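Hey, resending since the last one bounced:
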Amino acid sequence: MRERVARQEAHILKRVGNLEHCCRFVESMSSGRFHYIVLERCSMPLGAALDGAPELTELGLAGLVRQMFAAAACVHSVDVVHRDSVPDNFLCSGPEMTVKLCDFGLAEVVRAGSPGVAGQFGTPPFMSPEIFRDNVAGTPTDVWSLGVSLYTLVVGQFPYVVHKPCKALMKAAVVSGVPEPSFQCVAQGVKLSEQLLGLLRDLLRRDPAERPTAAEALEHRWFSMESKVEEQRPLHSLKDAVKSAKQVGAFSVPSVASRSRQRAPDSMDLALQELQRRHRPQGQAGLDDEDRRSCSRDRASAVCRSPSGNSSATTRASSRAGSSNSAVRSSPSDGSSSTTRSRARESTSKVRSPPSRGIVTDYYL
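The structure tokens again:
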């Protein structure tokens, strides 16, 4: 089962890995109980780039978000639906801080004439009404997820707010649309532009047929660098909104259970630790933590200075820092519940991802 899913992800990566704004596929292989996927390495995750930006206004954020939609448009052009287009699955690469879409563990090819692929997979707060209601995800689902991502970054909370991380409550809110999104930034004194609010309302249309495609969204005037004087974006800083977005889980959805429960290492953890010890011995030369943070800040400061984000570079990393030229993801071939990018927690929730995914959310337990 795990081998089949790992091969499926490698198949998808071969299909999209040379597209602009997608992480480039290098190779895949199997060795014993592990399956490896090698991808080009990126500089930092999107969240780190936002943290390191000296200022963050709508103008600067538009450059990043535009590249996120460009990534979705590329993927959709080859009939692939990502199904987990959330902020944590975007990385920044190179001197231009080009944004790249990564982690195709949930991606599927949409057959011609089909409305999408079956299954309730994804990160719950970013999942569309049609996934919960009709058990289907097509390319409009990725557009919805990007809309939720943008909304959360600029407003500081998810569109549908529930009083605790609960599958039933979130599903009910997304399906019913109640309570409705406020479209008001939680940061004091910040007023979002009419262009941005209009884009958000288009992206979060509840009927998937009424949403713009990712390519159509790129034509929205909010992404235009040549706005008319009367339509210029406000210069309010969105730093506090992004900080609030992180606190509610825009980059790693919180779980009461995961905060209160620690698990002892299992056999898969021990096997991975031994491999790491063998191939990355202590004292290995490389940047120390402070050097990495300084480098991240310097590179992230370029994000808002170059909002258009035009770059043909295609690089990728599963790990977030270091000096190697590529990153390796592995998927266990036995019945373990671990992956190399994060601890996987067993859950009976249907909306969790397959075991080959790099990041498995346990937001609903």
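Confidence is low (pLDDT under 50) at residues 255-260, 305-325, 333-365.

Sorry for the duplicate.
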